[in-house]
């Protein structure tokens, strides 16, 4: 009701005790294309939807390697994301230079959160308009954190941000209890399925989707398109047959609607088998 | 009134010799593994060679604390380059970076005498040789360190490199094969070990070629 009176400055409180500018920044995250993260005991997977502004342009880069053991996926103002990635990379390099060991993920997210908080308490600044999913591995295991423009951060088993995040979250909430013991392949499949949930009408194609993995003995890297395509094909076909897929409890309507689309598009044409 | 002199020096010389030879499609970088101070030996197995990039190595003699700091600095800069350009630094690029890094401390230098060796962007062997403040040039072969006065004249005799100032520009790479170059390096270090007290113990040879990086060791006199 009183939003317009109290939303000009980040340094103005509303009567209800809210900072609207910060909340508007979080809105920027919700409006962008989706990014999803999941983790097991030994691996963390990030997947995101890559939107291109037109057919002629290249896709936006949303996943960044920060160090061998840490990577991030962003949703929101990509430019802000670049800046924060550069900051995170620098912090990792400096820590490694001084201590000759990798920066623990928990330390990095705190630094990132404090950096975001500063922008919520300066009249001449604005909040970073980007949500950051931090995937990393350190001595205490595999971690997934979400850093908010507000300066808040939490650790998650699985999380989704960006547009239609609720669809992915519904799927993740159903399945998250199994993630800790998941194999690397199952984790990636679950990530891809979550991405597909956010796409709704569209088909899950490699051109719109990017996947990255970090794990024990596996430095952070983005999976190449071929690998992702094979994985998408595998579970699309598996879903066709209704046989033990990563999600045996999947509802029939899902199967019916996506299968013909997949058959029409993927050259593999499971319908023909 | 005599000039007041400092009662300590920030520098020390840990001795040792380094050599690098460039071939048509390979590069040999070698250094002894003795680290000393004054007339004492600190270690018989200390490596003076470090990998800076995929096809680029650096061998440095002088004050090893400064060498270590320089190596860490370059490694950090290389990481930043990889994040920004999505690829490894080429040897010539690293050569320029090293020169700039050294000159940055022109008025409190890194006491580090370096030879950079590797493959250039065309896959040909390249060697760059430096002084302590960053003056560098691309050559076909070079040596630095305590044994360099003994080693360099012998390399000149065997490999005579054309001057980079000649016109038309002539190729700096050696006509030797990879095995011949490695044998030459072994001979040269064996000789230097005889007369240079700071060179000896073991010789570390690293060969870079299209297949990758290969490491070899040879024992030297320990006296």
UniProtKB/TrEMBL annotation, chain A:
PROSITE patterns named in the record: PROTEASOME_ALPHA_1 (PS00388), PROTEASOME_ALPHA_2 (PS51475)
Biological process annotations from GO: ubiquitin-dependent protein catabolic process
Domain Proteasome alpha-type subunits: 6-28
Subunit structure: Component of the 20S core complex of the 26S proteasome. The 26S proteasome is composed of a core protease (CP), known as the 20S proteasome, capped at one or both ends by the 19S regulatory particle (RP/PA700). The 20S proteasome core is composed of 28 subunits that are arranged in four stacked rings, resulting in a barrel-shaped structure. The two end rings are each formed by seven alpha subunits, and the two central rings are each formed by seven beta subunits. The catalytic chamber with the active sites is on the inside of the barrel. The 20S proteasome core is composed of 28 subunits that are arranged in four stacked rings, resulting in a barrel-shaped structure. The two end rings are each formed by seven alpha subunits, and the two central rings are each formed by seven beta subunits.
Keyword hit for Nucleus: yes
Ranges of Low complexity composition bias in the record: 249-273
Source organism per UniProt: Trapa natans
Domain of life of the source: Eukaryota
Family assignment from sequence similarity: Belongs to the peptidase T1A family.
Alphabetized UniProt keyword annotations: Cytoplasm, Nucleus, Proteasome
Chain intervals for the UniProt region annotation (Disordered): 240-273
InterPro entries reported for this sequence: Ntn_hydrolases_N, Proteasome_alpha, Proteasome_alpha-type, Proteasome_alpha1, Proteasome_asu_N, Proteasome_sua/b
A Gene Ontology cellular-component term: nucleus
Record has Phosphoprotein as a keyword: no
Major localization listed first in the record, in broad terms: cytoplasm
Name used for this protein in its record: Proteasome subunit alpha type
Role, per record: The proteasome is a multicatalytic proteinase complex which is characterized by its ability to cleave peptides with Arg, Phe, Tyr, Leu, and Glu adjacent to the leaving group at neutral or slightly basic pH.
Cell location: Cytoplasm; Nucleus
TrEMBL record, chain B:
SUPFAM superfamilies, sorted: N-terminal nucleophile aminohydrolases (Ntn hydrolases) (SSF56235)
A GO BP entry: proteolysis involved in protein catabolic process
Source domain of life: Eukaryota
Primary location recorded for the protein, binned into one broad class: cytoplasm
An example Gene Ontology CC term for this record: nucleus
Protein function: Non-catalytic component of the proteasome, a multicatalytic proteinase complex which is characterized by its ability to cleave peptides with Arg, Phe, Tyr, Leu, and Glu adjacent to the leaving group at neutral or slightly basic pH. The proteasome has an ATP-dependent proteolytic activity.
Native source organism of the sequence: Trapa natans
InterPro entries, alphabetized: Ntn_hydrolases_N, Proteasome_bsu_CS, Proteasome_sua/b, Proteasome_suB-type
Keyword Transport: no
Quaternary structure, from the entry: Component of the 20S core complex of the 26S proteasome. The 26S proteasome is composed of a core protease (CP), known as the 20S proteasome, capped at one or both ends by the 19S regulatory particle (RP/PA700). The 20S proteasome core is composed of 28 subunits that are arranged in four stacked rings, resulting in a barrel-shaped structure. The two end rings are each formed by seven alpha subunits, and the two central rings are each formed by seven beta subunits. The catalytic chamber with the active sites is on the inside of the barrel. Component of the proteasome complex.
Name of protein: Proteasome subunit beta
Pfam families: Proteasome (PF00227)
Family from the record: Belongs to the peptidase T1B family.
Localisation: Cytoplasm; Nucleus
PROSITE patterns with a match to the protein in the record: PROTEASOME_BETA_1, PROTEASOME_BETA_2
Alphabetic keyword roster: Cytoplasm, Nucleus, Proteasome
